[in-house]
Amino acid sequence: MVLFEKAPAKINLSLDVLGKRDDGFHEVEMIMTSIDLADRVELHPLDEDCIEVSADNQYVPNDERNLAYKAAFAFKNKYHINRGVRIDIEKNIPVSAGLGGGSSDAAAVLRGLNRMWSVGATLAELAELGGAIGSDVPFCIYSKTALATGHGEILRDIAPPPQCYVVLAKPNIGVSTRIIFQHVHAEELIHPNTQRIIRAMEENDFTKLCENVGNALESVTFSLFPTVQRIKEKMVRAGTTGVLMSGSGPTVVGLVEHYSKAKRIYNGLRGFCEEVYIVQLLDRR
Ligand code: ATP
């Protein structure tokens, strides 16, 4: 029986870098929530003990480097499964965009294989398994709103954002998270006030949320890719109140209360920017 899983993208409402650990990892503190822009992951059971993966995007590898492949490999290993799977991925989430597409595909594979092979693992067990594949995979297992700490794998549920529309603008460049972190100089970062953002969401206060969203990696990505800064400035000039870069970029996120305004901002950005979307939050009030 063929099985489908939706793999939604995430956006950051905050990203802070707290310091560098002895093992070289950066300690982060991030607020993330899922949006209704999603890849479609199709799982076909195979009798032979093998994993095949194919994605309809030239920037995504169709082999063991694919995070979906890694997820299937880890799952089979952990639960001693000697059957196989073919994974077909319809990519709708832009690649290397700061939207967590690869992590979400991996999470979808873990959820899907758990169903396909009736393993009965809990979401917490899948999240733990996913943490070894990528820092954002545990978040993507749940796809809600969370505060993520550690290197992104320690999660705490928090209140979802107020009802709003999200404008996404992505220039035609891919940004490697690894390279951005290599250029981080802790003393130069501007830190968002994470607690204030959490409180704004608890109070369902859209204005307060927009005033406080922020991403400490913006200065790093902006200096390497000035076009990302220009997109942010254009969104702000268009009257978007809450604007920040998602992840390590290059996608810029704008929070907008009403659809008509989101559409106006969307129209203003098209032509100026390669890919523009209006999406909604998945974790709604
Ligand atoms: P991150 O912040 O984790 O880098 P991102 O959203 O910026 O996430 P992704 O779209 O997840 O970036 O892709 C990052 C890299 O992972 C790319 O180099 C891509 O080739 C590779 N990759 C491996 N598997 C996948 C997948 N299933 N979908 C997208 N990219 C994948």
Brief digest:
The protein has 285 residues and is α+β, with helices and mostly antiparallel strands. The chain has helices spanning 67-78, 101-116, 123-131, 137-142, 177-182, 194-202, 206-212, 218-224, 226-237, 259-269; strands at 3-20, 26-46, 51-55, 84-90, 145-149, 154-157, 165-170, 214-215, 242-245, 252-256, 275-280. The protein has ten helices and eleven strands.
Protein model, in words:
The structure is a single chain. The chain is of the alpha+beta class and 285 residues long. The protein folds into 2 domains: 3-157, Ribosomal Protein S5, domain 2; 165-280, 2-Layer Sandwich (Alpha-Beta Plaits). Helices cover 33% and strands 29% of the residues. The protein has 10 helices and 11 strands. The strands form 2 sheets. Strands 1, 2, 3, 4, 5, 6 and 8 form a 7-stranded mixed beta sheet that branches. A 4-stranded antiparallel beta sheet has the order 9-10-7-11. Strand 1 (3-20) and strand 2 (26-46) form a beta hairpin. Helix 1 runs parallel beside helix 2 (101-116) and helix 6 (194-202) runs antiparallel to helix 7. The longest helix has 16 residues, at 101-116. The protein is globular, with a radius of gyration of 19 Å. 48% of the residues are buried.
Defining key terms:
seven-stranded mixed β-sheet, binds adenosine-5'-triphosphate, alpha+beta, 2 domains, Ribosomal Protein S5, domain 2, 285 residues, 11 strands, Alpha-Beta Plaits
Could you outline the blueprint of secondary structure elements for this entry?
Layout: E1 3-20, E2 26-46, E3 51-55, H1 67-78, E4 84-90, H2 101-116, H3 123-131, H4 137-142, E5 145-149, E6 154-157, E7 165-170, H5 177-182, H6 194-202, H7 206-212, E8 214-215, H8 218-224, H9 226-237, E9 242-245, E10 252-256, H10 259-269, E11 275-280
Parallel strand pairs: 1-8, 3-4
Antiparallel strand pairs: 1-2, 2-4, 2-5, 5-6, 7-10, 7-11, 9-10
Bound molecules: adenosine-5'-triphosphate.
